[in-house]
Amino acid sequence: xxxxxxxxxxxxxxxxxxxxxxxxxxxxxxxxxxxxxxxxxxxxxxxxxxxxxxxxxxxxxxxxxxxxxxxxxxxxxxxxxxxxxxxxxxxxxxxxxxxxxxxxxxxxxxxxxxxxxxxxx
Length: 121
Known about the structure:
Layout: H1 2-17, H2 34-47, H3 55-62, E1 67-73, E2 76-84, E3 99-105, E4 108-112, H4 114-120
Antiparallel strand pairs: 1-2, 2-3, 3-4
């Protein structure tokens, strides 16, 4: 009788400790290609921007930038939003050279890319 009790207890413990795994989404390690998808989405969204768009519309489309800057010059407010668009370093961090700058003057998109950003400096 004790043996049967032990077997039933072991069986119950095994059933209780067993789990079920449900995978929802793409196969692979969680986060393994997040940066690649982010770069692709950002590059595609930036390619479809129009000069003259409001900053709020751009942020709504692209989300939170990796970096941002703001300054005034001759009474105009400039904001530069940096979005990740290319891979350069396998260090797990996004750096400025892995981003595309979007330049806004008084909350209106005036251009994007390194040359536009460099012209402000």
